[in-house]
Amino acid sequence: MSDLINLNFTVNGEKKHIKLDPSMTLLEILRNILKLTGTKEGCGKGECGSCTVLLNGKAVNACLVIASQLEEAEIITIEGLGKGEEIHPIQKAFIEEGAVQCGFCIPGMIMSAKALLDENPHPSEEEIKWGISGNLCRCTGYSKIVSAIEKAAKER
Amino acid sequence: MRRFSVIRIRSLEHLFDLAEKGMTNPYFLAGGTDLLIKIKDDLLIPPFTVLDISGLQELRSIHFEQDYVRIGSLVTHGEIEKHPELRLLFPSLTDACHGVGSPQIRNRATIGGNIGNASPAADSIPPLYVYGAELHLVNSKGERWVKIEDFFTGPGKTIRNPVEIIKEIRIPAEKRDYGTYLRLGQRKALAISKISLALAGKKKNGSMEDVKIALGAVGPTVIMAVETSLYLRGKELSSEVIKEAGNIIEKEAEPITDLRSSKEYRKKMCSTLLVKALTNWKQVA
Ligand SMILES: Cc1cc2nc3c(=O)[nH]c(=O)nc-3n(C[C@H](O)[C@H](O)[C@H](O)COP(=O)(O)OP(=O)(O)OC[C@H]3O[C@@H](n4cnc5c(N)ncnc54)[C@H](O)[C@@H]3O)c2cc1C
Ligand code: FES
Ligand code: FES
User: Fold this and answer.
1) Nearest-by-Cβ selection for B3 from A21, A58, A130
2) What's the whole-model pTM score?
3) What ipTM was estimated for this complex?
4) Which end of chain B is more exposed for a tag (fewer CB within 10 A), N or C?
């Protein structure tokens, strides 16, 4: 297969220099190498959004990005949202609204919400639904997730 | 996922050098949202070489010139969808890009990849037909411009050589009075179009002058509804004309039956989408 490449990129504000196979997915790098297991693998094919992270500020499916595409990239995962012990306001709103059931979809859902609110701080309900249209949830029926994002937007 | 060989392309010259030396089964990787799925599904038979072109900055920009708008092949659906000037000139295209996949997909998936993948259901392609787009194809031997309708030969098949890169897409910078893109899928997000219709048109003294209509996901490639366009030329946008245009397109379209829908359903829906598009136009006019 390919020769290993030296990859320089930033994860949650920390610079990383690692040697790895260029065909490895960002999801594999995060979970298997960096042990950041907050990012989940559902479908592995861009359909479910449970692997959503921010790449240069934009929400992407980590299962559909490979190492060779990551030179100098800035990645933020769910682990990078809070400050130390303090969780992020979006995370807080999810807890307060009871928007979490089994929790599997939630890291991805929160990363999509973060990307949405960074771009559009006061989205309408429709815009929120469109913003999380790439994230599937088998448990909640979405309405509490939408309320949580509305709440987080209000409290910003 | 299985491991495979990847070469990160640093410049077009780098690509041309590699091409001259020869490679086994090269595939370009832009956003990877089609190619990586194919690799995961074991649809590419090894050995193959993935050429990662995603770092080629020169393919990432949009230029507005006197006669043409030039869109680099690595521009994403998300960038097109949100571009205010593109929305003014080519609303059918920005509508189409708005509906691709999901926010995450639109942030990665490129217009060049949508064209390169050559699915008859690809959303950006019918609008490129109605706006008369041309593709700039470049390889180590030279370059050529190809009209979008001459590019595709079947599902997943094009006239492109394996190491010929789509560098940019240029569209005549012509303002129309109306443009739209309508699609039917299982649901709004993350669903492949079962059928889609792109329409762009101009009016003169109250009647339609030049209306272009393209249909996606009805046959092996996108098709233009030429007879329907001819019928509309010179007519006013009245309810009778709209109804008759719906009948004509239903006869004109020769859809296929596949897993997603039957031929009969597709024929009816071609008509339904056209009636909807023309009715919307009538309302804004
Ligand atoms: C979950 C999901 C949902 C999707 N939803 C939609 C949808 O709603 N509508 C839709 O149309 N598509 C959809 N797609 C398909 C895909 O996202 C699009 O076709 C996208 O535009 C492909 O672009 P890419 O940059 O990711 O292509 P890649 O996967 O990088 O490439 C696709 C093909 O084009 C070739 N190629 C790429 N760039 C070039 C170039 N510059 N020159 C020559 N050849 C090139 C590649 O070799 C490859 O064969 C979806 C995909 C997924 C995974
Ligand atoms: S695991 Fe990436 S989208 Fe489902
Ligand atoms: S909370 Fe269980 S999948 Fe969303």
Assistant:
1) A21
2) 0.96
3) 0.97
4) C
